[in-house]
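Progress note, project year one: complex with NAP.
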Amino acid sequence: MVNAVRIHEFGDIDVLKWEDIEVGDPGPGELRLRHTVIGFNFLDIAVRKGIYPVLPELPSVLGTEAAGLVEAVGEGVNGIKEGDRVAYASTFPGAYAEARLIDASQVVVLPGAISDEIAAASMLKGMTAEYLIHRCYPAKAGETALVHAAAGGVGIFLSQWLAAKGVNVIGTVGSDAKKEMILANGAAQAVNYKTENFQEVARAVTDGAGVDVVYDSVGKDHYERSIDSLRPRGYMVNFGNSSGPLPPIDSVELNVKGSLFFTKASMRFYQLSRAELEASAATLFDAIAAGDVKTVIGQRYKLEDVAMAHTDVAEGRTTGSTVFTI
Ligand SMILES: NC(=O)c1ccc[n+]([C@@H]2O[C@H](COP(=O)([O-])OP(=O)(O)OC[C@H]3O[C@@H](n4cnc5c(N)ncnc54)[C@H](OP(=O)(O)O)[C@@H]3O)[C@@H](O)[C@H]2O)c1
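Model obtained:
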């Protein structure tokens, strides 16, 4: 038996239960992992509330990102062996546990330069930044990007990495303290959207032209001003709904506001094969090793304090990545 955080129903933080669970032996194609560090993601809140589009069957262990050691290997697994240090960002929950079974195809072996803690703090958020800035809208040196929630987990990776590519980053945040933080992490301009108008800043910084791209994980609250910040034929890349879902997209509005492009991006559609997963992870690990991105771990919680972490992140009190220790 191992300790785990499970939900038996969707709802508020009181549905998070600290329980003993049986893990068992890996079946064909599976691994049993002993976690060392577990990543927290805003997505975990959506899954807990039952508003994530791909919901697990109940009861379910939450969590989609972790690092650890391979304890046992099922039949037919190639390239991963007992004792390997590995990490994953899986679409299938199960990370909030001391140990778990997982399909080996979701797991990558960690290079020596990437610690377990860095991996658990970076896999989902860093690979999200990887596909957004290289394969969704590949921003180029000299372009200007508006990045929302720039002090958040994904947001810091985006800002640092875009800046390393020579992109001019305008970051938005919900407090003045977070402004300082993003200016130290890639943003050339920082906007507290609670007291300042980011659309005006975006126009001012680009001499009225508008930004080339918006990378937006906030959703509802920032949508209208985001598309009003874009240049003609600019790209609205929405990849999250932290403030609530977007309104239905109005194609006429996209037309009259400048033949704008809109996408609702999801990591699982940028990791359609093992080759795409391995390439994304390798690009991230190389960027960390080169110093283009530096994983910022803003908070650490014990796994049994999971409810506190969910509350702090939901209320915007956190910065950078959040990890659970065991
Ligand atoms: N599509 C994908 O592939 C993909 C992959 C990973 C994550 N995501 C999404 O990306 C977003 C960021 O994930 P993360 O784990 O890195 O979280 P995070 O950015 O660390 O936390 C969310 C941040 O959003 C901001 N925010 C603005 N309005 C908010 C509101 N009404 N309620 C709560 N937060 C609000 C807060 O920052 P301020 O205080 O600065 O406003 C808060 O810190 C999430 O929506 C997540 O679901 C999508």
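The mean pLDDT is 97.
The chain has two domains: 2-123+271-325, 141-264.
No further modelling is planned for this target in the current period.
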